[in-house]
Amino acid sequence: MTGLVIKLAPNERVLINGAVIQNGDRRASISVRSPNANILRLKDALHPDQVSTPVSRVCYVAQLLLSGDADPAEGHAQLIAGLEQLSQVFSDRDSRLMIDDASAAALLGNYYQVLRQLRRLLPREARLLARAQ
Predict the structure, then answer these.
(1) Within the chain, how many helices (H) and strands (E) appear?
(2) Cβ distance 92 to 120 under 8 Å?
């Protein structure tokens, strides 16, 4: 089988190409056959109140682009600028690789992969911010 298989818990919601889809009372699997579909589990989505750090702000821009809630040209420019700023702050090899992967995905318009890579940076950022205080 080709495509993406999404396994949903009971009553779990997912955003697919701008449409919110909610599962019923039982576990279910959905096979997404369309390439380049924009998919975001709403349990993984950042709420605007959670956006308080540099990495979370760039994640949020990627999320808005993924969900279709941002102007594509303006959001893309903000995303690239945010990634550039993050690349100036994170100097360790692993973080740089994540940012490089996110940047490559952003240039291709693959905002899900950008979001995926940046979410891996959130714990590192939290440690750095805790150490700074």
Answers:
(1) 4, 5
(2) no
- pLDDT, one tens digit per residue, over 48-61 is 998 999 999 999 99
Separation CA 30–CA 111 (nearest Å)? 21
Short-list 16, 38, 42, 11, CA closest to 27:
11
**pTM score of the predicted model:** 0.85
Question: Under 8 Å CB-to-CB from 15, ≥6 apart: which residues?
Answer: 21, 38, 39, 40, 41, 42, 45, 67
The neighbouring-strand residues paired with 31 are 5
CA angle 119, 109, 94 (to 5 degrees): 35
Do 121 and 89 form a contact (C-beta atoms < 8 A)? no
